[in-house]
């Protein structure tokens, strides 16, 4: 898929929840299922949660930064993914061995047919009610406290990131600007800023208060100029005007980037390395 047209936005967003039925799991041994039915009280739903623990987690008492990542099905395992996985576990295991960089990753499965609403902070005339405000409160008020209580985490915002792609990129962006005291780092991959004009007004209001965030934001040049590229460039301009410096805001437009899991997988290492 080289871009996202108005006609196929909803179909693509929903299809991200459809797994490939590979015979073998590709998840590394240090990826675990925390729960298949973790409560989301803010939305009265349950969800599968994945946890990646560093290779040396069991060997000491060290504490680690935490990445909260959307579309958990697609992060670690080709068996559960749509169109391939991000290889987050393989990438981080390699970085731990070659650069001594480690973190915990919490992967939150998307809500299948509810994905579009859960990742939308605002209502949409075509796609319906946005549930992103409640979903973000789940990450902040329910999931993060549980993770901090049960794992050896570094709890501060400088050690906590939220990451997502497409609609997941939109909710990651919203979460970071709405809760900069919680999420001090944000990986905003191919963000769906097309979804709502409210996103830009939100950034104008929240940006000056959140300019100490680190945001790594990119879109592929093949994703569509009007629908994806121009909105990201517009958002970057708003953030710069709000006081974000080059040390706090990274933007990129890879010429060969399209709207795909393979693209986001390729860019994950660079995002993680810059954010931390």
Summarize the structure in words.
The structure is a single chain. With 276 residues, the protein is α/β, with parallel strands linked by helices. It has helices spanning 9-15, 88-99, 115-118, 132-150, 167-178, 198-206, 225-241, 261-275; strands at 31-40, 45-52, 66-69, 104-108, 160-165, 185-189, 214-218, 249-252. It has an eight-stranded mixed beta sheet, sandwiched between helices. α7 (225-241) links the parallel β7 (214-218) and β8. Residues 1-19 have low confidence and may be disordered.
Structural class: alpha/beta
Query: How many distinct helices?
Result: 8
Tally of strands: 8
What percentage of residues falls in helices of 4 or more residues?
A: 25-40%
Order of helices and strands: HEEEHEHHEHEHEHEH
The main β sheet shows up as: 8 strands, mixed
Rg value:
17 Å
Low-confidence stretches: 1-19
Shape: globular
Question: Spatial order of the strands in the main sheet?
Answer: 1-2-4-3-5-6-7-8
> What is the straight-line distance between the termini?
31 Å
Average of per-residue pLDDT values: 92
What's this model, at a glance?
This protein is of the alpha/beta class and 276 residues long. Helix content is 34%, strand content 17%.
Topology diagram in text:
Elements: H1 9-15, E1 31-40, E2 45-52, E3 66-69, H2 88-99, E4 104-108, H3 115-118, H4 132-150, E5 160-165, H5 167-178, E6 185-189, H6 198-206, E7 214-218, H7 225-241, E8 249-252, H8 261-275
Parallel strand pairs: 3-4, 3-5, 5-6, 6-7, 7-8
Antiparallel strand pairs: 1-2, 2-4
């Amino acid at each position: 898929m080289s871009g996202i047209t108005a006609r196929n936005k909803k179909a693509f967003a929903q299809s991200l929840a459809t797994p490939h039925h590979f015979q073998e799991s590709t998840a590394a041994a240090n990826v675990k299922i925390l729960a298949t039915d973790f409560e989301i009280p803010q939305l009265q739903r349950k969800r599968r949660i994945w946890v990646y623990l560093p290779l040396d987690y069991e060997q000491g008492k060290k504490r680690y930064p935490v990445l909260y990542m959307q579309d958990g099905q697609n992060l670690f395992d080709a068996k559960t993914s749509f169109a391939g996985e991000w290889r987050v576990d393989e990438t981080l295991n390699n970085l731990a061995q070659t650069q001594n960089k480690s973190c915990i990753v919490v992967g939150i499965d998307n809500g299948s047919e509810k994905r579009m609403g859960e990742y939308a902070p605002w209502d949409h005339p075509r796609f319906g009610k946005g549930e992103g405000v409640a979903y973000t409160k789940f990450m902040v008020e329910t999931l993060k406290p549980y993770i901090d209580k049960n794992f050896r985490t570094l709890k501060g915002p400088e050690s906590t990131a939220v990451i997502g792609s497409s609609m997941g990129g939109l909710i990651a962006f919203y979460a970071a600007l709405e809760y900069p005291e919680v999420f001090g780092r944000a990986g905003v991959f191919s963000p769906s800023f097309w979804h709502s004009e409210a996103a830009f007004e939100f950034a104008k209001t929240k940006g000056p208060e959140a300019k100490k965030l680190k945001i790594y934001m990119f879109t592929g040049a093949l994703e569509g100029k009007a629908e994806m590229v121009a909105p990201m460039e517009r958002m970057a301009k708003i953030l710069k005007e709000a006081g974000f410096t080059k040390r706090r805001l990274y933007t990129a437009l890879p010429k060969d980037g399209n709207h795909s899991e393979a693209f986001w997988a390729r860019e994950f290492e660079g995002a993680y390395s810059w954010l931390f």
